[in-house]
Amino acid sequence: MIRRLSFVATIAALSVAPARRITAQSFSTDDAVLKRIWAIGMDSSQTMHLSQVLFDSIGPRLTGTPNATGANDWLVRTYKSWGVDARNEQWGKWRSWRRGASHIDLIAPRVRSLEGTMLGFSPGTGGKDLTATTVILPRFADSTEFVKWLPSARGKFVLVSAPQPTCRPREDWQTNATPDSRERMDSVRAAVAREWGGRDVRGTGYSLAIGTGELGLRLEEGGVAGVITSRPKDGWGTIEIFSTYNKRAPAIALSCEDYGLLFRLTENNQGPKLRLNLDAQPLGDRPVFNTIASIRGSEKPDEYVVLSAHFDSWDGSSGATDNGTGTITMLEAMRILHEVYPHPKRTILVGHWLGEEEGLVGSRAFAEDHPEVVKGLQALFNQDNGTGRVVRMGGGGLVNAPDHIRAWLAKLPPELQKQVDFQGPGFPSGGGSDDASFACYGAPAFGLGALPWDYFNYTWHTNRDTYDKIVFDDLKSNATLTAMLAYLASEDSTTVTRERVDLAALAAARAAQAPASSTAAPARFRAPTTWPVCTKAPRITEPRLK
Ligand SMILES: [Zn+2]
After folding, report:
1. What pTM does this model have?
2. What is the CA(79)–ligand 1 centre distance, in A?
């Protein structure tokens, strides 16, 4: 009751208070360009319109698919309509595929349409219904035992994912469960994760990474009807949807709830039958592109300020926050810059990379194909962690970067200055997003770290990454901030040098301070102890089973 009352009171207060102009800009600057960037970015933002077209009408952008190429073409058209030079640059060929409709129905022992969809690149059912019974992947002593079991699964749908003991998020258990009951649930969850996780799923010798992996292919060779998966997040109704390498046996992802239902019906011998009707079309290997747009530098055309965000997504929904919002940030920043700063000192270039989800492939290929950009890089700003406003920046592991970044930040409006916590020289990105493709050369590549807005439980790689999750006030502010940083980096009278921090010494200092901390964080979030090494970008889809 109290919560409700205070909510009503807040609304009442808001409705009588004079509307505060949230766009009122309070910083004092003589810089006409910064003033105009603010005015255009905050008062006549195009982020909403651009997002609606991209996420609702075009949709997801799975690398290799015609949808992604269509989206590349839309980007080029959009830039050209503003008068910005843009092109699609091919970096390789990738497996291609068209996603059609997924119809997934339980038809026995009762009828229910299930919440689920094909994995990316799944074979379809050839315009027909595919009906079969189900079997749970047993626990095997070793892969020989798995091979012996395979014939018994012929013609059946195989359930290969963990049966979750609860589809309620942890937060709900923390709020409502008795301590005993919560502890019990935690330990059951941990046991289930141990039993079904890892690279050797249930003793088969094969993994499901990332989707159905090698295990899916072995099951397909064994003649199963299809592979049923579920990768729920720690949230209500969200699952991750990745891809399969299967060519004949379809692979689908079900919600936590419907997978659990099917699992229990199978486990209890209640005769479940599943009917799939999946429309999909493999399209062979097709060219894949990054979209590149640029405004040529007037004084130092061979030095570059790069706006960076991957454009591809998984295709379980619209890829709105991964990485639609990074995309729109850079697109809108470029629109603003073209309008207010058409003759930059250094060349301003934006890279909308494909193949990020497959291992930063498009950006690595671009860095290989454009050594002149890597060599002349003054600053690269990458954004790829959701819709939130940018709250963190580091110096990419370069000793000289903080002098520059601090000077740029000092010129920003106080609203933006306050919001960004600059963390000093920091570390080079070792992976996770496309700044790593440039940081490995020792180039100044900076990640713009956003506020999470429950990214990991709700939108990252999920079936719920849609237009409605975008926080437009934050997105608008990010585009404005990025345009300002690009302008300031371009105008900087000196160039960011490439002297590196001593990563080994920093690691030793950290270890001396907190000996346990190095084991606490998962490897991908751990600070690197040696400078990351650049690896060659694959220019074709590599086979899953070699
Ligand atoms: Zn991403």
Report:
1. 0.92
2. 22
